[in-house]
User: What shape does this take?
Amino acid sequence: MLKLENVWKTFNPGTINEKVALQRLNLEMKEGDFVTVIGGNGAGKSTMLNAIAGVFGVDSGTITIDGVDVTNLPEYKRAKYIGRVFQDPMMGTAATMQIEENLALAARRGKSRTLRSGITKAEREEYIEQLKILDLGLENRMTAKVGLLSGGQRQALTLLMATLQRPKLLLLDEHTAALDPKTAAKVLSATQRIVEKDNLTTMMITHNMRDAIAYGNRLIMMYEGHVIIDVSGEEKKHLTVEQLLNLFSQASGSDEADDKLLLS
Assistant: This one.
């Protein structure tokens, strides 16, 4: 479903601020894979997601989604393949619109618009059923303005909106980092239910190593712009944080784990 081949990206090349963000990055994801991504700040995690989404072009290499080479496609043309949830809960929703209106916008993404009434009875019933998956009681607040919701509720709603059209690839960029631990756990639980329900191919960046181990069927660790650890299946299930840090030390050639990797 996703294939990155020898991808390179350098910011500010030829200047004193030159930064090689991605180098020799190779990664393949099968349909239905739920991959968690960890690594210290500057390891290239968010740069990889932005490159996949088309926020900026890469210097070399290819990016393929579901067999389509999207390397040179602009961001708006890749949007039909991708659902994305950002770290900031305020980014994915329209605060002045109602919950059901936000869902209607997400449901109509990529479709032709008409002058028919905004939301049909059947659509409203479908939205109620979808909101029940989140287990936050939002199905009883369909006409509430989204700006009145908490950060966790807005992030969960954004997650639902990003997956209504069943994207080829779901990108989660530290989507619980701005939430308190209790709310983050609820959003992660909702994430798991949605991903499993639709068998979504998902990439989730996190700074929390325990979450990276607990969720998904595969875990990768990035360092200096490429993947240095890739574990899945039974090996991932039985992995501990201590073992993960030891793997990092071996793979990176460093005796000390990156302090930034230990933030969580």
Observations:
- DSSP finds nine helices and ten strands in the chain.
- The longest helix spans residues 181-198.
- Strands lie at 2-11, 19-29, 34-38, 60-65, 68-69, 82-85, 169-173, 202-205, 218-223, 226-232.
- The mean pLDDT is 88.
